[in-house]
Design goal:
Blueprint lengths: L4 H12 L17 H16 L3 E4 L5 E5 L7 E7 L12 H16 L8 E6 L10 H7 L4 H6 L8 H6 L18 E9 L4 H5 L3 E7 L1 E10 L3 E2 L11 H19 L5 E3 L3 E4 L5 E2 L2 E10 L2 H21 L3 E10 L2 E2 L2 H13 L4 E6 L5 H4 L5 E6 L15 H19 L1
Parallel strand pairs: 3-4, 3-5, 5-16, 6-15
Antiparallel strand pairs: 1-2, 2-4, 6-14, 6-16, 7-12, 7-13, 8-11, 9-12, 10-12
Helix pairs in contact: 1-3, 3-12, 8-9, 10-12
Length: about 400
């Protein structure tokens, strides 16, 4: 049994038009923006039109499926529908629409299974508000304090962004699925790195997912005239940021591993004039590793480095920890199912870690969870030129079909 590759391709292309920007060719479906919610409505309309049961929960997660998961534990598959600003067409969307294509294939072939099969398009996975809110809600690991205080780097609160689309942040707490409702979870995703592409391997069977912490840092000095303020008398916030950037390599060497990643991804200088010494630097730090203990050491090292740099440049240092997502292992049983399917279809396959976070890491807290990778061309992702070859998309979707059949029988 095989999925319909041309139909999947067509559906992916249709979704890619929602939030598409002509000027830079990127897709803009940042969590709980108008385009993001349009994509969710589009998915529900499509699924309902094709005869599947569907609904949206209080967290903004959208579902389509076959069977009643209230009576029998379901095999759930999916990923996310939101994108980073100027993102690509495959990240997240592939897992959701490949899941929908599996449903179509099961329906067309009149396949009778013991367990219901459902697809989820999770909400707010890309971390606009600091976490993976949709899958965290389904796993029951969000709390009221975080929901009420969560905000993005521009100061927009999660509760307000949801209210704009007639969603009540209080309803997020009701979205949790008890473990008894699930038999297994599978996610198909592009690798977002170069390993599979460079090694010419078709399928990655993911063993575990890196943890992630995210900070918003403020270095506060004194704005001054760029022409009259002597260099040795400045409290230049940008110089503090620049010094920290040079410290990253040392921090990783001393406290990290070969799996460690530290990134300064967003920077704002105030007041932002070419002729004014920056009085404040606001920037994000995102750290990743496969070990929670290593992540703790990295965070401590970043804090110590920033404190010392602030003293050197006469700055005040403040930071907010927006999120801390622990590393998570995937189910070895389901990883073996992925490998077996690849072998049965004569596809090359390796076991590998994931340096990026995925919805799978939260589903793994409540059920057996497996993560399938396909290659990203040149390892590119989170960019307009993100691409995966259609033959790899087809291969990954067929592996997903095999895995769901294996777990739902």
């Amino acid at each position: 049994m095989n999925i319909n590759a041309e139909r999947l391709k067509s559906t992916l292309r249709e979704l890619s038009q929602i939030g598409y920007n002509e000027s830079d060719h990127g897709i803009y479906r940042w969590g709980f923006t108008d385009a993001d919610m349009e994509a969710r409505r589009w998915f529900l309309t499509l699924a309902e039109k094709e005869g599947f049961k569907c609904h949206m929960d209080g967290a903004g997660n959208v579902f389509a499926g076959i069977g009643d998961y209230h009576e029998t534990p379901a095999v759930l598959t999916g990923s996310h529908l939101d994108t980073v600003p100027a993102g690509g067409m495959f990240d997240g969307a592939l897992g959701v629409l490949a899941g929908l294509e599996v449903l179509r294939t099961l329906k067309e072939n009149d396949v009778k299974l013991k367990h219901p099969v459902w697809v989820v398009g999770t909400a707010e996975e890309e971390g606009r508000f600091g976490g993976m809110m949709g899958s965290q809600a389904l796993a029951g690991v969000v709390n009221m304090d975080w929901l009420m205080s969560a905000h993005d780097a521009d100061g927009v609160y999660l509760k307000d962004a949801m209210a704009k689309h007639n969603l009540d942040v209080m309803d997020v707490l009701d979205a949790a699925w008890p473990p008894s409702r699930l038999k297994a979870f599978y996610e198909l995703h592009i690798e977002q790195g170069p390993v599979l592409f460079n090694d010419e391997v078709t399928i990655g069977a993911v063993e575990g997912i890196s943890g992630v912490f995210k900070w918003i840092v403020h270095l506060k000095g004194k704005a001054d005239h760029a022409g009259t303020a002597p260099m040795n008398m400045r409290s230049d916030a940008f110089m503090g940021l620049a010094d920290f950037a040079h410290e990253i390599e040392r921090i990783i060497a001393e406290d990290g591993t070969d799996k460690t990643r530290i990134t300064v991804g967003k920077v704002e200088l105030k007041p932002g004039s070419p002729h004014t010494v920056p009085g404040e630097a606001i920037f994000t730090i995102v750290g990743r590793d496969m070990s929670n203990d290593v992540m703790t050491d990295l965070a401590d090292a970043c804090r110590k480095a920033l404190s010392a740099i602030a003293r050197k440049h006469r700055l005040m240092f403040e930071y907010e920890q927006v999120s801390w997502l622990k590393p998570q292992s995937c189910s070895d049983k389901l990883t073996q199912v992925i490998e077996k399917s690849a072998k049965g279809r004569n596809l090359s396959c390796i076991r590998m870690p994931s340096g990026a976070g995925h919805d799978t890491q939260f589903f793994a807290e409540i059920t057996q969870a497996g993560l399938i990778f396909i290659p990203s061309v040149n390892g590119v992702s989170h960019a307009p030129d993100e691409w995966s070859h259609w033959h790899d998309v087809e291969a990954g979707a067929n592996i997903l079909l095999d895995c769901i059949l294996n777990s739902a029988e």
